[in-house]
Amino acid sequence: ILQTPLANVTGSLPGFIVLILLAQILWFFGVHGSYTVLAILYPLWFTYLDDNMAAAAAGQTIPHQWNTSMYDFACNGGAGCTLGLVIVMALFAKSQKYKAFSKIVLPCGIFNINEPLIYGLPLMLNFTFIIPFIITPVLSLVLARLAIVTGLMPCPTGIIGMNTMPIFIYGVIQGSWRIGVFQILITIMSALIWYPFFKAADDQALLEEQQPEGASDL
Questions:
Q1: Are the C-beta atoms of 90 and 198 separated by less than 8 Å?
Q2: Which residues contact 32 (CB under 8 A, 6 or more apart)?
């Protein structure tokens, strides 16, 4: 009774975009948006898995294409596609604040864990980063769907529980090296989107660090 209407909502690009937007808005306000949304999606995805695995083994088209991997593409590095952000932070940070912080969040981001980033940077309630935090995962999802439809990569099988695998390795496990290459490309894309917003925050942090001690109290 519940799964059929839910499948109709989540089985399309507009429906998935709505779910991603809901998750990101919840994250912004400090609520774990992914698990709020995934509570709706996981029961559906478990029913998809047998059919998808059988189709993949037989070399056939994946029947349930709106599976867990489509959500994972929108969480490349964690909610908000923040792998690009932590790479930018590690490579380009000038302030001591962000140089030190990158050493913590980059290893986590490689394994798609970004709670330290969301609550520690923070991205939560941070209007400096709200635009890339919401736009980047939606764009990654749209590009993933476009890549599948145009045949640039096959549809992933949607094996559940692989979301902590590093990029490329994840793609190979989900069905093809081309999926892994796509993950690398959306990481580069996300880094380009995050860069100007991070640079603004880093410049401000650097300016504060260069102020004489006590100057901010004057």
A1: no
A2: 26
